[in-house]
């Protein structure tokens, strides 16, 4: 299980780089925030959200009825592996692949980043890995 020191290191060293990459991919009108670990049951999360619920007449045609509100969490063992031998190279490959991963996750859970909408009020992509 991930200890507090490892969680803090993940938040300080790795999460800002994930935020930077995701922010670049999702463009304007979307917030990308780090939510720090609160307990082993509530790990570090990345929240990707839009500022308001979709309304008729918005600039974008919304595919789904709810505003974007997605949370990403990673598996503890995967985070621990990042901190070991070869972890940095693995993480760089992951960052390069995250655009394709976001595309795949959207289809799996009725989320549409382009229109900043989703089918459910909140979506969690949990237990993620760092495979490229």
UniProtKB/TrEMBL annotation:
Domain DUF5594: 2-131
Organism: Caballeronia glebae
Tree of life domain: Bacteria
Record InterPro entries: DUF5594
Protein name: DUF5594 domain-containing protein
Record Pfam families: DUF5594
